[in-house]
Design goal:
4-stranded antiparallel sheet; 471 residues; alpha/beta
């Protein structure tokens, strides 16, 4: 990458915008519903509305709630509406965060510090399903908490009996997913809650995906096991507004059953020369636009809007699942409860390559290998095309021997099967160092279609398979 410096003379604003628009040429195409993650797009009308709400508070900073009282009002009302949605009561408290990751980081440090108040000399551990979102791994890493994985049952839900056996004096919390990101299934929160309450261990429900979706699924009459504050043992819940709440990026909520838990999340420092400092969450400066847009989205959608969006997602998901199940050799994994699911089959990564050749942005899972989808209302317009392209990609994979051993399919397949996971971590870490180092090497190869990260991972995979004794 060429050296980048601040231009000597500023470029005209319209030229800057033209360059930015040009840079978007290779980005994932979510406007045409070709993506199945990352973006929860309801169309330009809703997006333009969010932009206006965000821009109205573009410069405001929620760091000091006394300076921008309107932002504190927005945050408080979003928290109260989320608490009501998830069956909290008058004692339920919470705060808005920058996204799902922050809403997963915070309970870990909260329950760690709470446990240390009660049991000073512990080596904190948290118990979570093998399918738990990777943000919880990050939280465990950042806050020096040991991650203890509980195995999954055949339906990809966590095994509660295994969780029971893993609890010890060092356990600071249990995590359950509602739903899990990989498979879209609901962990047995009721059973986990009963266990957590009996053993006196906090239970967090990671509902970043489902918090603004599952309550409406239930209102529509779908059968749904309890997962929220109606379960006595649940002590906290995370829910993203920028996912199925259809807000602008950078908006999530972390809720606690009462202040007895949340007070351990606060950071207060009284001796700083800059004055007494208090922060309710991880960030200092908190972008006002994201908070304002979250409030605006909820108010504009209303219960009727969310019900209609949820109905469309559930109907579209049912059509997709029926279509996939009708395709010979493909199988839906587990029993997904909302618009998040995965499916598997022979040479599934090669099938994913075929879908990408047709312009779809395809997410892949491993252990076991699968393709993944997160459905939004606008996907109703592309169901038939998606299924047609899926059948075509599957036929091509079957009729063209060797596709599974070439291209992306080979890379993903080898990486998924490699037993030396630490070597994968080492190679990806090297890639990250290059991307964020002084030369900022981007993961793209101007001489070909494969990115550097793919090339590096393939090279690593080949080294391991060809000469593992030399690693």
């Amino acid at each position: 990458m060429d050296t980048v410096k601040i231009p000597k003379k500023g470029i005209q604003r319209d030229k800057v915008l033209e360059q930015m628009q040009a840079f978007r040429g290779d980005d994932a195409n979510y406007h045409d519903s070709k993506t199945w993650s990352l973006v929860y797009y309801l169309g330009e009308e809703h997006t333009d509305f969010l932009k206006k709400a965000y821009a109205m508070y573009f410069s405001e900073n929620a760091l000091n709630p006394m300076a921008f009282k309107s932002l504190k009002r927005f945050e408080s009302e979003v928290v109260r509406m989320a608490a009501d949605l998830l069956n909290g009561d008058d004692n339920t408290v919470g705060v808005m965060t920058s996204g799902g990751t922050e809403s997963c980081l915070l309970p870990v440090v909260t329950y760690r510090d709470m446990a240390r108040k009660k049991r000073r000399f512990i080596r904190p551990e948290m118990i979570a399903p093998q399918s738990v979102h990777v943000a919880w791994e990050k939280a465990a890493h950042y806050f020096n908490v040991k991650m203890v994985h509980a195995p999954l049952m055949d339906d990809f839900r966590v095994d509660v009996d295994a969780v029971k056996k893993l609890i010890n004096r060092n356990t600071i919390m249990i995590v359950g997913s509602a739903p899990s990101y990989p498979h879209g299934v609901l962990d047995p929160i009721g059973e986990l809650g009963e266990l957590a309450e009996k053993r006196g261990v906090p239970l967090h429900v990671d509902s970043c995906l489902g918090g603004f979706f599952l309550p409406f699924v239930k209102k529509l009459g779908y059968p749904l096991e309890p997962f929220d504050f109606t379960v006595p043992g649940v002590t906290s819940i995370s829910a993203d507004v920028h996912k199925y709440g259809y807000s602008a990026k950078g908006a999530s909520v972390i809720l606690y059953r009462n202040m007895d838990y949340m007070r351990h999340q606060f950071f207060v420092h009284a001796d700083w020369p800059g004055g007494v400092f208090a922060s309710p969450a991880l960030l200092g400066t908190r972008p006002g636009g994201a908070i304002a847009a979250a409030w605006a989205s909820i108010m504009a959608m209303g219960e009727d809007g969310y019900l209609e969006a949820t109905r469309e997602v559930m109907d579209t998901t049912a059509r997709l699942i029926r279509g996939i199940e009708d395709i010979d050799s493909l199988k839906i994994m587990g029993n997904p409860i909302m618009g998040v699911f995965a499916y598997t089959g022979k040479d599934i990564f090669a099938v994913g390559d075929g879908m990408e050749d047709k312009g779809w942005h395809i997410d892949r899972l491993q252990r076991p290998n699968a393709l993944h989808a997160m459905v939004t209302p606008r996907h109703k317009e592309v169901v038939d095309l998606y299924l047609e392209d899926l059948r075509s990609s599957l036929r091509k994979t079957r009729d063209t021997p060797g596709l599974a051993s070439r291209g992306n399919a080979a890379m993903y397949g080898m990486i998924a099967d490699i037993p030396f996971r630490r070597m994968i971590r080492s190679q990806v870490l090297k890639m990250m160092e290059d991307m964020y180092g002084p030369k900022m090497v981007m993961p793209m190869d101007s001489g070909g279609d494969e990115s550097r990260i793919k090339q590096w991972l393939v090279a690593l995979a080949l080294r391991i398979f060809q000469s593992p004794d030399k690693l």
